[in-house]
Every structure is written in C-alpha cells, then in structure tokens.
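**Discrete fold encoding**
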Amino acid sequence: MVEGWCRSKIFLLCFSLLWVSIPVNAGAQQNSHKIGLILSGGGARGAAHIGILRVFEQERIPIHCIAATSFGSLVGGLYALGYSADEIEHIFLSQDWSNIFSDAPERRLTRLIERRNARYQAQISFHGWNPEIPTGLLEGQRLTETLDKLITGRLLRAEFDFDKLPIPFRAVATNLIDGKEYVFRKGSMTEALRASMSIPLLFTPLEKDGMLLADGGLADNLPVDVARAMGADILIAVDVSSPLLPLDKVRTFVNVIDQSISLQMEQNIEESRKLATILLKPDLVKYTNGDYEKISEIVKQGEDEARKRLPELKALVAGIGPRPTPPPAAGATPVIQAVSFRGLKRIASYQLRKNVHVHPGDSVDPAKICADVERLYATRLFDSVAYTLEPAGENRYVLIFKTKEAPMNSLGASLRYDNDYNFVALAEFTARQLFNSPSTATISTQFGGLEDVFASLRLAAPHAQSLWLEPRVEARSLERQDISNQELIDKYTDSREGGQMLIGATIFRQLEISGGYRAERVRISNGLQPFRVDGSTVLAGLTFRLNRDTLDLPVLPRSGTLMRAQFDKRSTSLGGDLDYSKLQVDWQRYFSLTSKSTFSFSATAGYSRGPAPFYDLFYVGGYSFSERASRQFLGLDRDELLVSQMGMFSATYRRQILNKPLSFVKRAFLTGTYNGIFSSTRQESPYEFDLLHGGGIGLALDTMIGPMRAAGGWGEAGRFHFYITIGPTF
C-alpha cells in the first residue's frame, strides 16, 4: 500500500512538471526569433527613419536590436536610448542646422577680440611657419555639443554599454587606414555617432586608437551583417541612400566627389539589400541629403512606406514578443572624483580653469559639463573639445576634457564689393599665445577702394587675462565725396598715420572698456575749398572707448545688443595742433518675433564741441558695410551729409524666406527699413537741427562666402538709389 501510494505521488509530480513545462516551452519557442532593425545613411533623407519608427510604435512591432550607419545611426542611437519617434522628430525640427554644420563657437561666450574671425572668408592656419591643410571643412564641434546634451545622461545609466540600453545598439564607421568597418559597441555614443556621420570632406575624420574613422557608409551603408552578429534572425532594413546622379547632373568637381562616394556606397549596399528579410525603401526621389528644412515631409514619406508594407511586417513578426525590459539602473547619483585635461601642449591648464565650473565632489550633471565644453571651445584655443567620464570605482568618475589645440598662427583673407568703394581686400595675420600667455599680435592690411594698414600687440598677463595693454600703429587712406544739393562737386583723400596706447579691461567677455593716448597726422589731398588743406595737421589727445556685444550671430543676427561708444579729447597741450572734443555712440538691438521674423532698432548720436576740422566730423549716407565708411542711410549717397551734431535712428523688419544649411545660399531674407536723422552743421548752440527721412526694401543672403545684400532706397522728394554689397564687414 505504501508502495502504491509512492507510485501515485511520483506520477502526480511528473504530470505536474509536464503540465507546467508546456506553456514555458511554447513561450520560449514563440519568442525565439530576434528582430533587428537596420538603418542606412542618407543625410537629411534619414529623417524617413523617424516615420518608420513611429509606425512601429503605433503597431507594436517589436525591435530587439538596432544597427545603423551615418544619419541612420543618429536616429537609431536616440531611439535605442529611449527617445520616442515623436521626441526625435521634435529634436530635429527644433535644431538650427546652420549652427550644427558650423564650427563657430557660441558667440556670446567668446571674448570680443576673438570675434573678428567672422571677417574672414578664408583662413589658413600655421604650425610654426608651415601651413596646415585641414582634413575636412568642419571639426564637428557644434554637432558633438548637441549630441552630448542629448545622450550622456541616458548613456550613463547604461554604464556606457550599448547592450544595456533599452534597445541594444551598434554604430558603424569606416577606418580610413585599412578601409574596414569599425563597429561601436560601448563607450561614448557621441563619439560613435560623430564618427559614423563624418561625411568625407565635410567633417574631419575622428582619431581613435590609431584609427582614422569616417562615415560608415563608405564600408557598410546598410549594416545587415552587424545586426545578424547581434543575434537577429529577422532583419528589417530601411534604405534611404541617395541614388547615383545622371550624366547631366555631374557638372562640377563637387558632383564628381559626391558621385565617387555614392558609387562606393552603392557597391557595399547592394549585397546588404539581398541579405535583408524585408527591405523598406521610402519614396524620396524629390529630396536630397541636404534638405534639412524639409524634415517633416521626409518623416511623412517614411510613415507612408511603413503603412504600405504593414501587412508584410505584421505577418513577419506575428507571435514575436517585445524585448524584455532591462532592470532599472541603480539609484545612486554618480559623483565627479577629479577633473583634468588631455591634449594640452602649449596652453597651461590654469589658463582654462575659470571656464570650468564643474568641481570634484559635484554630482555628474551632463548639462553643466556641456556648458563647460562650450566655454572652453569659445576660447578659440582649440579645434575641438570633448569630454569623457572614466570610472573610478564606487559610482565615481574622473571627468577628462579632451582637447585638440588649434594652431596659434593664422592668416585670414576676405574680399568685399559695394557701390561705394568697389573692391576692397583684407589680409590679416594673427599670432596668439605669445610669451606663454593670452597675448595676441595682429598685422592687418586693407587695399583697393580704401586702404588701412595696422599692427597691434595686445599684452595680457597669464593670471589676469581680463586686463590688457595694447600699443598700435596704423596708416589709412580714404576717399571722401564733396556733395552739395545732391550733386557731386569733387572728391578728396583723407590720409592718416598714427598710433595709440590703450589700457583696457574685458568684462564678462561681452564688454570692453579702454582708455589711453592717441596721436595721428592728417593730410587732405585734392579737393576744392572749403575741403582743401595745405600741409598736414596733428591730432593728439586722450581717447576712451566702450564696446558691448551680445549678438547671437555675426551675420544677420536674430537677438542681442551691439553698442559702441568713443570719446576723443584732442588737445594742443598733449601734442596736437587743435583743441576740440568729439563723442559718438552707436546702438543696435535685435528681437526675434518668430522663428522666421526679426525686428531691429538702431540709434546713433554724434556730438562735437570746439573747432573740429571737417575731416573729423560725422559723414552720413550710402550702404557700405566697411568699418571706415560713412554711416549707413538709405536714400542718400555716400558722404552726402557732413554734420557736426546728429541723432539718427532706424527700424528694420526682416523675414526669412530660405533656410538650406548645406547650400551655397544658406539663408535668405526680405528686408524693409525706415531711417531718419536730426542733424546740424553748427558746432555751437543754437544747433538748428534739420530732419530727413529715408527708407528701403532689400534682399539679404547668408552664403558660404559671406553676406550678400541688395537694396533699393528712397529719400525725400522721391530720390531713389540702388545699393549692393557682397562680402563681410571689415
């Protein structure tokens, strides 16, 4: 009986185990398949990936891993981090792609003296006296900064392991040393995406562990094999690569380079298409890889393709469950144990400390670290600045700023044309970090329609960088017009040689205050009375200056304030031939009304006291963007007004009509301006001011060679002038 009872118990136990094992085995079989999503490169066309992902979310199509290249790695990486398709689209739509495809630092973080780089259309850097040719147009700094803000916080929770992300992820780059693909599996995702998106000629390759990594599309633009290596057996590939150009479209060397790269990509992508279980290819015939202003339209094309293929997709993934949710990360807040720099050679770390606000003992705050990166890059001492967090045990990290020092010697050049001075060229040599300090020397020459040559040396102490001493010598020559009753009477030339010694301070990077002594010898040649002077005159005395600049952009700004004030006291007791004083103040304010509309208001005041000579009064009229030209006034000719006292004001509305970051014309605007002036030719009270009005409409372009502007201006009594200027302000 006992034996029978034991047999019954054993039978019941075996039956129970068999019953329990059936659903477990069935479930295991049901979930044994692994779905891999493969996203190709394609520039802006890659926004179609967002539409694909949105449909996958809505239809609950599971994704167990993602392998991607180039722009596909950007979309795929963000999705793997846990961003939704809607969030990724919002990120893309809110980006200023012109800034991302730029190496210009945040302008408001740079010192005023460093902002003159906007004057240059071309710049050559020197290592010693050897010119350095860059390996790409851009270092990708602004792209790196943007990625860090989006990525680091979430990647930190995954301990920098791509397999611990909500969706395991791989990014593919190409090693230019051996031509093989390199697959990023862990570490900095910012570095991975930056390398994978390093379009040849546009972005410099990324140096890593003896490799030179560029766009992954060169080796594997549709990395199906990578997804398979991750364990995926159902391979859903999305191909948004650009088609080859027809014969009639291959017209320039840029087209030839683009076609050569596309041929390389087409060869490696064809085999990958065959390996995919299903290939999704959105209809993107109307879009190019540079259509970043059409992101929403391209996303819609991705959605349409996924919806069209939805029956096939659902049949393919039927019965396959989602990837198990990874366990939540530990709740302890990571802490900075130490802060250091890597890559410094000529620059001392103490020179950079004031730009770093993260300190040992602080919690890891990616936003705060990114702000430090922006400040360091804005010093213009580096070609690139990035950071890494290296584990130091017990949830502590060493923050290392990785720097690539910029060449300290450079030659900048520009060419400008306008109606007033025709062609004017600029060549400017700058040497920085002199005497192992923030000191800078500049030699500059302008020639053509006007001439201006100067040499300056700004001396700053290493431990007191905001204070400086600047000696300067210069010679310049400028042709002036003698206009009376709207008729050109004659022309005369104002030639000056002189020098100055200034002591100044830079406050919060955006404000400079300086004062010192200035002397110059003036000669007026040609001209008729009263604009004829025999011999030369020495003007000498004290000068005081204030410059404040909070503009967001150097060209066609959208917000911020620009203010320049200068007071000169000429005196015979200080070595001059005349006694008089002169004050001039220029103020501009910009407001962004909408994402495409900007309003600006400007005011200028000029005041002179004493027997100021005519050549040192205030010239008004024309539309030149030369720093030496008469003040702009639509409706008047250059130099048409010569006044002793004035108050001028203007209001401009600007509407953006084009935004194509990678095109020759990056931005285009329609403009409308009203300007007016109260002026007097009297140097003593009563001044008896006259009021003049003017205005105009125009077109302003932000191009790869600098700004281009054309405007029609109307003055009083219906006078009309047409103005054109091509090139930067200098």
Notes: The first helix runs from residue 2 to 30. Residues 447 and 481 are 19 Å apart (CA to CA). The longest strand covers residues 464-484.
